[in-house]
Write a structure and sequence with these properties.
This protein is of the alpha/beta class. Helix content is about 30%, strand content about 25%. The strands form five sheets. The protein has a six-stranded mixed beta sheet with strand order 1-2-6-3-7-16, sandwiched between helices. Helix 1 crosses helix 4, helix 4 packs across helix 10 and helix 6 runs antiparallel to helix 7. The chain is elongated, with a radius of gyration of 23 Å.
Length: about 400
């Protein structure tokens, strides 16, 4: 069976180019990022899969009044295998949303039109996450088109909303359709990797994205005694959060790169428009990536303490809100999905991969938290979110071979 599957995949480049091209034509940007969501792209993909013989399809639409059609679509395709589904299926999870192009002047071509240059396809989303999406489709088609039965049932999830937190994607599915998933399932998330394909991600740092609003008292620039400068208080707060949290949660873990927790002030909102006014409000954001050994409650408790100190020192108030808070249990290094994925990578790419941890942010976290073993892997050029994002056709086809081997186990 392997020879037939690989032979078919070796001839599938034209299908990969066609699917990448059509998917890229349909921007799937979240409302938070100024887009309409994923409906057009999902509708196309559903029709395309059906016309190519993958007919067991079901939509799970999360309601979102901001998006086109007032939904965020999640699509699942099923390719039946020989084994009983109760004994575990092979899930391959990719996401259909993409980030905006960013500064379009930095692109050498239209971000929404795929440009083919030899082995390279250029366009927004072609790698993140259409590489994994197209590879999973090719792997499934290699069985369907040849009438071959995989050893275990293949389930492809094309999820919404991954780029801004998965509230309407995998998190919504776990909350509202928990029965879709079985703890015996094998889960691959092809949404992270390296150019050699040598890293299998089995652990993620916790993510805390937090907004800090510091409220003081506005005053004339010449009379600071009559005000409470929120900018000064906010600046001190940002530095204290960065320095004190880094020291408090300072352990190192060689599985991760970087091997420590990070507490980074990032986005800053404008305050007063003129020079001679002391600002009464200061707003900034932090991106925090925390090693799994520290609980979110430990971090949040320390943040609360620092906020309180700043309030007393500067006579201000500090309010916080979180836009993303995700913790994740690790996958055991000896989990079956890690073992069979390792063997498949050796078989296809002739390299022995190693388990690693990453800064966090994949769909694997949501399923790990309900007891499923997940691995995150691709052989990828890591151009995601960049101008002239690109993917290599060889990687799409090679990864499809790895996925097909998982379905034969």
């Amino acid at each position: 069976m392997k020879d037939k599957i690989f032979s078919w995949l070796d001839k599938s480049a034209d299908i990969a180019v066609q699917l990448e091209t059509e998917l890229t034509k349909r921007p799937a940007v979240s409302p938070e990022s100024g887009g309409e969501g994923e409906l057009d792209k999902c509708n196309f993909l559903e029709q395309w899969l059906r016309s190519n013989g993958i007919t067991e399809l079901k939509r799970y639409d999360a309601p979102d009044v901001r998006a086109k059609g007032k939904v965020r679509p999640n699509l699942i395709a099923v390719i039946k295998g020989a084994a009983n589904e109760k004994d575990g299926c092979l899930w391959i999870l990719s996401h259909i949303d993409v980030v905006p192009p960013g500064e379009e002047k930095l692109w050498t071509s239209d971000p929404w039109t795929v440009v083919k240059k030899g082995n390279k396809l250029i366009g927004r989303g072609v790698e993140d996450n259409q590489q994994g999406l197209v590879s999973s489709v090719l792997a499934a088609l290699s069985f369907v088109k040849q009438g071959l039965l995989p050893a275990r049932t293949i389930k492809l999830l094309f999820a919404a909303d991954e780029e801004v937190g998965s509230v309407y994607g995998i998190e919504w599915l776990v909350k509202n359709h928990r029965n879709l998933f079985n703890k015996k399932d094998f889960v691959l998330v092809p949404d992270g990797g390296d150019p050699k394909g040598e890293n299998i991600e089995i652990a993620e740092k916790s993510i805390i994205w937090m907004k800090f609003t510091v409220s003081g008292k506005q005053a004339h620039g010449s009379r600071p005694d009559l005000g409470s400068n929120a900018f000064i208080a906010g600046s001190d707060l940002a530095l204290r959060l960065h320095n004190e949290l880094s020291a408090k949660f300072g352990d190192r873990d060689p599985m991760f790169d970087p091997n420590y927790s990070t507490f980074m002030p990032t986005k800053k909102e404008a305050n007063v428009p003129n020079i001679n006014t002391i600002p009464g409000e200061d707003i900034f954001y932090m991106d925090m990536r925390v090693l799994p050994r520290y609980s979110k409650d430990m971090v949040l408790s320390q943040i609360k303490k620092i906020n309180s100190d700043i309030e007393k020192k500067y006579k201000v108030t500090v309010k916080t809100s979180t836009s993303q808070l995700m913790t994740s249990k690790p996958t055991d290094v000896n989990a079956p999905i890690v073992k069979i994925l390792t063997n498949a990578i050796i078989n296809v790419y002739n390299i022995k991969p190693k388990p690693i941890g990453i800064g966090g942010g994949t769909m694997a976290a949501s399923l790990r938290n309900i007891g499923l073993d997940c691995a995150v892997w691709t052989k990828t050029e890591t151009t995601l979110h960049q101008p002239d994002e690109y993917v290599l056709l060889d990687n799409i086809i090679g990864d499809a071979k790895v996925m097909s081997l998982l379905a034969m186990e």
